[in-house]
Amino acid sequence: MSQQMRQRRGQPLFILNEDTERTRGKDAQSSNITAGKAVAESVRTTLGPRGMDKMLVSDSGDVVITNDGATILQKMDIEHPAAQMIVEVAETQEEEVGDGTTTASVLAGQLLAQAEDLVEDDIHPTTIVEGYREAARLALEAIDEVTLTDELDDELLAAVAETSMTGKGTGDIDAAALAETIVAAVQQVRSDDGVDRDAITIRTQRGAGASATELVQGVISEEEPLNDDMPTRVDDASVAVLDLDLEVREAEIDAEYDITNVDQLNAAIEAEEAELRGYAESIAGADVDVAFVTGDVDDLVASYLAKEGVLAFDSVDDDEASSIARATGARTVGTLNDFEADDLGHAEVVRVESFGDDDLAFIEGGAAAETVTVFARGGTEHVADELERALEDALDVVTAALDAGGVVPGAGATEVAISDHIRTSVASVQGRKQLAIEAYADAIDVLPRTLAENTGMDPIDALVELRSVHDAEGRAGLISQGQSGDVGDPVEYGILDPAAVKREAVESATEAATMIARIDDVISAE
């Protein structure tokens, strides 16, 4: 009967496998909290405009240099289950609003640190959870109170984008210039229904400084022309998107052909060539200037198309073909039999440019103009990759500001307001839950404290001054100045964050911290 047996006459009852490891009580809580704090601490120094980068090296030697919290946590080899919950906080933050991953992770870690102190003072985890949830509700109230009522014009949106990118790797161009590109991209795909974030693509290409980054009104494809004799630029182009193969059709049944003389062979070859020529003639006859084909194109078809002056590409990715169709207003066609002029799209220009060993096709100025591409440049692969991450975050925060509830003061001002609101409200709470709510306010303080540290200021002195200015003027943040910083009104300096980023950070960090704090038994087996 294995290890599991019935309990008889006082004999022990074995439920778990003999290889099972079990940690209970305060030991389990301490282990989980320590693991969560360690992960949060790993990204703390990346917070803010003066935050530092991390170099992540994989087992195969691949190197990533970044200060993006989500990227750092995703690349780290984390095994502890509680630590993985902090990683999930960052992932959730990234998926929902696209930025604030470091803020959410650091807050979750500090909430755990405060919970550990409360447990040591014999505050029951359930009481801590109740207090944290009440404090999170108060935090969301404070965020609503400090949300600006100003109309989100291009100037404010550019400030949001610039704030998101400040301190991140943007190469030889400052965040302000990139912010203008970001706002233009978002406004291009904005409608009464909101921002179509999926209609904005970022394409990176190394070989030039980041200052060469530009906004392309359309799509960029990595496919190369099928034939060297095809044109590399077509103005006022009629565009076809074909979801088919342009090759000799294969028989649907197995068959053998008995060719006994040269005339029969020539006839077979001519029949195939006629079929292939027919494809090219159908395309050229429909006044197609540029064709994007998702399938394979025979060399003879490509040659015929080149003679007709048609620029053609094959093996185009389905998603890319869909983007091209949206940008040009073309209909995706699955057969040439019903091919009509109405199926064609339009582009002001389709041009092929060489970048080192790479050729890129630019499809610009589509009739529908529903798709735009940020063409990001970088002198090295690492610079280009980090620039792409910065641009992605900026696009996400501008979208969040427009679609999910406006903007709030940055530079730690919102966190100071949250902490003040929680401490003001806690007096009405009875019992030990009050201690948990006060601990939550202390945890929120870690964010402006960390900003002060990373800016070169004394964190305690900075926090005291922040509270004083907030009480006197209603708004106070840490403004990075040279090698240090000052306390001032972040709105006057154009330092703004989406309110949605703050809300999501509070909600996801609280959820993770309360889940980990409630665990008092860890059971693991080989």
What is the fourth-level CATH superfamily of the largest domain? Answer: GroEL-like equatorial domain
Radius of gyration: 30 Å
Largest sheet: 7 strands, mixed
What is the total domain count? 2
Overall 3D geometry?
elongated
Do you know the CATH architecture of the largest domain? Orthogonal Bundle
Number of helices: 16
> Which runs of at least 5 residues are low in confidence (pLDDT < 50)?
1-8
Q: pLDDT average, as an integer?
A: 81
Terminal CA distance: 21 Å
- So what's the CATH class of the largest domain? Mainly Alpha
What is the strand tally?
Answer: 20
> Approximately what portion of the residues adopt beta-strand conformation?
15-25%
| Helical content class | 40-55%
Structural class: alpha+beta
CATH topology of the largest domain: GROEL, domain 1
TL;DR?
This protein is an alpha+beta fold. 47% of the residues lie in helices and 18% in strands.
Structure, described:
The protein is an alpha+beta fold and 526 residues long. It is built from 16 helices and 20 strands. It folds into 2 domains: 22-148 and 408-523, GroEL-like equatorial domain (GROEL, domain 1, Orthogonal Bundle); 218-368, GroEL (3-Layer(bba) Sandwich). The chain has helices at residues 25-44, 69-75, 81-97, 101-120, 125-146, 154-165, 175-188, 262-285, 299-307, 318-328, 381-403, 413-425, 433-444, 446-455, 459-473, 499-517, and strands at residues 21-24, 54-57, 63-66, 190-191, 194-195, 200-206, 214-216, 218-221, 233-242, 290-293, 311-313, 332-333, 345-355, 358-366, 372-378, 407-409, 477-481, 484-488, 496-498, 521-524. Strands 8, 9, 10, 11, 12, 13 and 14 form a 7-stranded mixed β-sheet that branches. A 3-stranded mixed β-sheet has the order 6-15-7. The longest helix is centred in the middle third of the chain and has 24 residues, at 262-285. The radius of gyration is 30 Å and the shape is elongated. It starts with 20 loop residues before the first strand and ends with a strand. Residues 1-8 have low confidence and may be disordered. This is Thermosome subunit. Keywords: ATP-binding, Chaperone, Nucleotide-binding. InterPro entries: Chaperone_TCP-1, Chaperonin_TCP-1_CS, Cpn60/GroEL/TCP-1, GroEL-like_apical_dom_sf, GROEL-like_equatorial_sf, TCP-1-like_intermed_sf, TCP-1_chaperonin, thermosome_alpha.
